[in-house]
Amino acid sequence: MARLADYFVLVAFGPHPRGSGEGQGQILQRFPEKDWEDNPFPQGIELFCQPSGWQLCPERNPPTFFVAVLTDINSERHYCACLTFWEPAEPTQEAVCSEDAAGREEEAAEGGSGRLSPGTSGPPGQLFAPKTLVLVSRLDHVEVFRNSLGLIYTIHVEGLSVGLETVVGNLLTCTIPLAGGSQLDSVEDGVRTISLGAGDRQVIQTPLTDSLPISRCSVALLFRQLGITNVLSLFCAALTEHKVLFLSRSYQRLSDACRGLLALLFPLRYSFTYVPILPAQLLEVLSTPTPFIIGVNAAFQAETQELLDVIVADLDGGTVTVPECVHIPPLPEPLQSQTHSVLSMVLDPELELADLAFPPPTISSSSLKMQDKELRAVFLRLFAQLLQGYRWCLHMVRIHPEPVIRFHKAAFLGQRGLVEDDFLMKVLEGMAFAGFVSERGVPYRPTDLFDELVAHEVARMRADESHPQRVLRHVKELAEQLYKNENPYPAVAMHKVQRPGEASHLRRAPRPFPRLDEGMVQWIVDQATAKMQGAPPAVKAERRTTVPSGPPMTAILERSSGLHGNSARRLEVVRNCISYVFEGKMLEAKKLLPAVLRALKGRAARRCLAQELHLHVQQNRAVLDHQQFDFVVRMMNCCLQDCTSLDEHGIAAALLPLVTAFCRKLSPGVTQFAYSCVQEHVVWSTPQFWEAMFYGDVQTHIRALYLEPAEDRDPSQGWEEPAEEERSALDVASEQRRLWPMLSREKQQELVQKEESTVFSQAIHYANRMSYLLLPLDSSKSRLLRERAGLGDLESASNSLVTSSMAGSVAESYDTESGFEDAETCDVAGAVVRFINRFVDKVCTESGVTSDHLKGLHVMVPDIVQMHIETLEAVHRESKRLPPIQKPKLLRPHLLPGEECVLDGLRVYLLPDGREEGSGGSGGGPAVLPAEGAVFLTTYRVIFTGMPTDPLVGEQVVVRSFPVAALTKEKRITVSTPVEQIPQDGLHLRSCTFQLLKMAFDEEVGSENAELFRKQLHKLRYPLDIRTTFAFTQGSAHTPGRPPRTTKDKGPSLRTLSRNLVKNAKKTMGRPHVTRKKYNPPSYEHRGQAPEDQEDEISVSEELEPGTLTPTSALKPSDRMTMSSLVERACCRDYQRLGLGTLSSSLSRAKSEPFRISPVNRMYAICRSYPGLLIVPQSVQDNALQRVSRCYRQNRFPVVCWRSGRSKAVLLRSGGLHGKGVVGLFKAQNTPSPGQSQADSSSLEQEKYLQAVVSSMPRYADTSGRNTLSGFSSAHMGGHVPSPRARVTTLSNPMAASASRRTAPRGKWGSVRASGRSGGLGGDVGSRLAGRDMRGPPQANGAPPDSGFLRPQRAALYIIGDKAQFKGVRPDPLQQWALVPIEMFEARQVKTSFKKLLKACVPGCQDFESSPTFLRSLEDSEWLTQIHKLLHVSVMVVELLDAGSSVLVSLEDGWDVTTQVVSLVQLLSDPFYRTLEGFRLLVEKEWLSFGHRFSHRGAHTLAGQSSGFTPVFLQFLDCVHQVHLQFPMEFEFSPFYLKFLGYHHVSRRFRTFLLDSDYERIELGLLYEEKGERKGPQTCRSVWEYVDRLSKRTPVFYNYMSCGPTATCPT
């Protein structure tokens, strides 16, 4: 029997001790006055009686009732039932609150009275004080408490003739039966009817099972208030130890919500802070770092806003707010969706019938109490499904004197298939589950509904998953059992308790609540206590039994086995390979080994391997020869490499006995065990793994301890037992716990000592095992500690809760006094000793090992480690004498002439890198990767040569290489080698030529050699000087790093070069232009002839094998001119071809030619990034160009680079305008005043310069200086008849010629055809290019063609510039030029985009599932978006030029996007540039001579390393490639030509694409070769020279689909 109530307390309003306006609670009386011995009086009751604070109220409120919960230091909960009523305040109380009355009224309204409707007020100025009756109990009978306190209040209010002392005394002496009514003899024993002496009768029903929580209607109310999704979120939050805060204006709702949430957590018990009603004075508790479930009045919601990690559930508003920083893991699927659907069926049974055409007339809905139990039944089923089979993962560590049980979390997660599930992982690591294991893991105890559900109903739940009605039926069955537990005898009469009359609280009470007679109450209590002392002690009736384990666990979701599903064939391969190894058939075993290593990716094959190896172990030892040992170790390493640190699937646990069994003899007395070869795995340094292994072995030995002495059993004990082999450790423990009380004390002590000795011996055994696997074979190597995060840092990784200073002190003394001289050895040994000591501390403390044994272990561990180190030294010494394993012979690569090895071959394994070519591809085929070979570092390339590790692939040679200069990313990695399966250092190299090397260094390559490789690679990739690169050093005798020419007479001065430049250009212009003959491919019989001179080999991609190719003759100029004159001659020849003027003095200038070639930049004084000869208008003086250049960035002023042969419109290029240049471009054209500044002078010269460009066009030469409609010829106003000129092939779709062509599509260039061009639509194209809407208001250059007179005006010159630099500038509509502001990407955007493109094309990993698809990655890179924008702008410029308007491209600094656009425009407009010779000339002229910064954008030197690789030229080649794809018949060269140039513009093999301008090339002598310098055959220094040679050898660059004119000059 137990007391119904422990204490009765009367609490009233009292003044605050600090004199503040608020009051405080004062205990007027408490009964009994002395504390019970078994239950002391709880402190702080005054705060919980009025959680919102003690305040006076101007109105008399109705009585309130709620139950607060207090938790004492022993985690015992005390239920405090509080009934509060209001009485007129006494004068002393009113005096306390006489100040600030208005503020008090507000607070009172927010506090107690705000919850209920106020009654009529008393006399004016009358205040009412709260008074609370409190009942304190350890039992949870809310209705009985409500009735009892209500009866006391009724007696007082109604003035009944019953003594309050008698009622209180009877209440304190009332006893009720303990839980377990079904185990009692009769209904009267399970149901107690009590009366407090006031004519009342109350029935108290004891729950059948004490462990099942009592919820009444709280769960159903919680779901009604918050909904399914919110309650599930709170459920997961509470289980994963988050902070949960309930808000409501009702205290009873807060209590019910907290009660309901705890009921849902069953069978887990919430072990953190639990305060259903938190007083306002204790709100700082919400800032505690520990989890909690707390309820707070909604009036204090503002104080909870600053809580950043608290989940707030508003019961009144029905919302749950989860902060952004909090992540609540959901239930694992399919349990989440299944639970949600079942809950919806329970809460809304009409949902299933809502769509029926003929719904049933009546739907039976459950009562609120029954619905509450149905909801709890759903969560009970959920826990049964989650924890199904948990008893199979329990480790029985000790049976006597008390059970010690541990849970194997990793095995449970692995067998359930929930290793990666965040929810279950956090639940198993939580405090609630730890309590669950210690409480429910006991094998011999009373069982409840959950135990039966887990043991017997699992198969039914799995079968019912797809049948909702069956699930609902099962839920109802469980709900009935839960309901019966709370109401075992529903037929018993209900309560009969008097209640006060309606509005009784408004009547003026005759007197305040009286002070009770303490003596009388104490006499009643003493009388009852004396009577109880004579009664027999109350014993809780329990029926203990063996807890059933239930069926073995299964995966929660049957997942497909995937790529490595282990079929019977794969397991057979594993068995056969092992059989061949132990039979000595090494050749057959070697053939099967690659297939076995692939099969061991699956769990079944790994288990099969462990089982097969166990068969070959006899008496814990298996001695193998060297070959057998290598095979076994290799397969073990393959098994262990995929093991996580927790070993969820038990592979490391199965191999642990084997690594100490398999061995080989190195010499007499020296034996090497397998553990010395499998140490490089993270699982061995994980404390949780060793703890689980230790507990598992202890359980095995404890079980054997009680199964051994069969003759000791008492034959009279007639307990039917299963066979000895079938009985589990839990069964044995259950039997021993049943027999324990019957044993004598001596026998009990003997069993305890035996168990303790068993645990102690296992601790010694595991100290040895751990030293085997933690001490490296070479103890001087500290890589073991570095690779596995360091044993010295494992203090944080251990889950030990035991901290012993003994372990640290022993390890410390060991470090200082053990006599080790080698510092690194001491570090390794000391770390291992500390690791083992921490392990020993934890497991021995938890297992009850005596302190003497524990001290002995700490003394023993250093000796074990030292002894093992001495043994390993002998093993290490002898293992070095073994003949090395025969490895494949290194295949040396073919080097180019002049290419030298910097680092000779380092043995590496080339690993799969995410591309299908190396792994057989989607179409099958042999997997050439991984391959075993060597990596070579030369002055030019990184080269791998090797052979596949799979012998079934055949004798294939794997060669991969890329230029050192193309390296964009170098990353250290740690990977497992494919043969030994040991983690090794590796490198991940990625190049901008879309090649990848992912390699692991062989174990014979030390870390020093690997680091030397990285340093040399970095030194070659980023040299200090460009003259030390391969392009300069190949084939030359001078040492790298020294300039090629040091004597003055060898190299000419810049002045001499400039004179030669002008002189040779004049010679060129004096000769008539000769069109180059069309390229003729060599005949078939000449393609295979051997050359006379040895030529180098080339590779464009890793798929192309280098070949020996030589030309029949070298490029020999007719006259021995310098390289600079060759380039300038080519440019000048192109200028002559285009008719862009002559080179003449200013006095004898030919007036008929609009443009001339100016040598003003021959000394590179105006612009160092421009060529020496420039095309400028005839009328502009050379001395004016200096002033014009000041308006442009980098002094790159506008120069002509191409002219249309038909429309005579010119294409100009320049750098972007400075601010002063922008202002000068659009200022009014007034006569300059005499006092002009230098800036105004520059702006004026700029305007004159542009006017000269406009005047140079034939159709504008005779105009009056304004671009008006009268200045156009009729042919260009609206004529649409094609011009009878020669056919001009362009790659742009001509615009309509007529004015009515506005509805036709414009700007598309999908076909190639010849036509005339309309002249009246230039303004339209310019507006389209700038993004303006032509359908807007009429503008000067864009008026709609409404009549024959008003036609859109076309500007003579369009200036395409950056939108940002022209912001706010309003152009003058009367000027002859128009501004086209556009938005283009910057160089940094190109760099970022290329990085993403490279990652999409060369992923570098094999994780196909998690990585996005190739097309998605390609889209995210935005590379094609940039290509599209370049082509779009170029096509628009082509249309403008074809329509007769000149265009100036003035973007950024004039050497990136500007170069791309003008090059594409010329390629699209002029078929000459689509020939081999023309494309070479285009690149030389626009990219090399006009100063694209190849060295800067390619990061050729150490100075450019920070800027990174920016492939501007590669982007241009990609644009050409896109055009080539659409018009393959218009190009003389093949796409391979573009790939070739793209590869070698970054390779630094040729000097062509080095440095940033002609000025820098002349400084280094690249554009000059003295006569007679060439002596004998030499390697090609120019890419064009190599192309010429190769073209004479083979037509690899020729496009056989070409049918257009290859060298037609526009006329």
Percent strand: 5-15%
Report the span from N to C terminus.
118 Å
Structural class by helix and strand composition:
alpha+beta
Task: Write down how many β-strands occur, each being a DSSP E stretch of 2 or more residues.
Answer: 35
Q: What is the molecular shape? A: globular
Describe the biggest sheet? 7 strands, antiparallel
Range of helix content: 25-40%
List unreliable stretches of 5+ residues: 98-121, 181-187, 559-566, 710-724, 782-790, 792-825, 1037-1052, 1068-1076, 1087-1124, 1145-1149, 1227-1236, 1261-1323, ...
Strand adjacency order, main sheet: 25-24-23-22-28-27-26
In terms of topology, how is this protein built?
Blueprint: E1 2-3, E2 7-15, E3 23-31, H1 45-49, E4 64-71, E5 77-88, H2 91-96, H3 101-110, E6 128-137, H4 142-158, H5 164-173, E7 175-176, H6 187-190, E8 191-194, E9 202-205, H7 218-226, H8 228-239, E10 243-248, H9 251-264, E11 273-275, E12 292-297, E13 310-314, E14 319-321, H10 335-347, H11 368-386, E15 394-398, E16 404-407, H12 409-416, H13 422-429, H14 431-440, E17 444-445, H15 449-456, H16 458-463, H17 468-486, H18 518-534, E18 545-546, H19 568-583, H20 586-599, H21 603-615, E19 622-623, H22 626-641, H23 651-659, E20 662-667, E21 670-673, H24 687-707, H25 729-739, H26 745-774, H27 783-787, H28 805-817, H29 823-847, H30 851-879, E22 901-910, E23 931-938, E24 941-948, E25 958-963, E26 967-976, E27 983-991, E28 996-1001, H31 1007-1021, H32 1030-1033, H33 1054-1070, H34 1123-1138, E29 1155-1158, E30 1174-1177, H35 1182-1189, E31 1199-1203, E32 1210-1214, H36 1219-1225, H37 1238-1255, H38 1274-1277, H39 1322-1330, E33 1357-1362, E34 1377-1382, H40 1387-1401, H41 1414-1421, H42 1423-1442, E35 1446-1450, H43 1457-1469, H44 1476-1489, H45 1494-1497, ...
Parallel strand pairs: 10-12, 10-13, 11-12, 19-20, 32-35, 33-34, 33-35
Antiparallel strand pairs: 1-7, 2-3, 2-6, 4-5, 5-6, 8-9, 13-14, 15-16, 17-18, 20-21, 22-23, 22-28, 23-24, 24-25, 26-27, 27-28, 29-30, 31-32
